[in-house]
Amino acid sequence: MEFKQTRQGYVDALIELGAELPELVVLDADVGKATLTLQFQEKYPDRFFNCGVQEQNMLAVAAGMSLAGKIPFASTFGVFATCRAGDQLRNAIAYPKANVKLGITHCGLSVGGDGASHQSNEDIAITRSFPNLTILVPGDYQEAKLATKAAARHIGPVYLRLGRDKYPVVPEIHDSFEIGKAKLLKNGNDITIISTGIMISEALKASGLLSQRGISVRLIHMHTIKPLDREIIISAAKETGGIVTVEEHSIIGGLGEAVAGVVAETYPCPVQRVGMMDVFGESGPAQELFDKFGLRASNIVEKAEMINSVKNTIP
Hints:
5-stranded mixed sheet, Rossmann fold, 2 domains, alpha/beta, single chain
């Protein structure tokens, strides 16, 4: 199995887009070595702007550049973009529908050794609450490239969630990328797994394990958190009667709550969530942290079997 960084997919797409879109510019908050945007600077030095350790100012500058006809991609870490610069993200970008793209790296538990202070497990909850903001969470390197190109074509603000670590390359999600349209990877009748971001590899493993146990799994990859593909969720609720959501994010305010909200409003059925359970992360190797905090295929299988047993008791 091949492993690659989603942040590398982001920057590789920016470099390709740079040749197509002369109005595209990239801003960074003095972490270009970590976000990898320095690679864009090497190719297009006149279209790269290091704003220093001033995330709030960077987002305001990006908003101003969008008003001048540029397509700015602003990059920093997840905790800085959403917590430190939340005011500017809300009032300078989301509120006026500024055509700013946020390429945000180091999101999720897999930031690893940087520890809880840098593991952004709340960023989807924060950004999901801002009107007008599109939220994309690609599952691997190739889909990060597709998502970045889709963001550049989209008119309006986009939050593109990327990681730090190297993640499995998943060919099943490479065929296309349409904002707001989830990908149906497997069609089953007993249970639905809805995954987002890099958790798709664990979701695929879980679907295989469940199939071996005679449970027919419908597997959905939800690369867009906002706007959410409500139609595919409602169909899953009606046709399988139970859903497990999977995310590298807090279960509060993320994919799980978004899906549960749709289900509660339209076709109620059991929903279980796999994600960070209202706790901060810890410092350590990413793979060990995934084990400790329950972000594995075995945890997905446990939740799915729990739902399946409950379904069998319902008249």
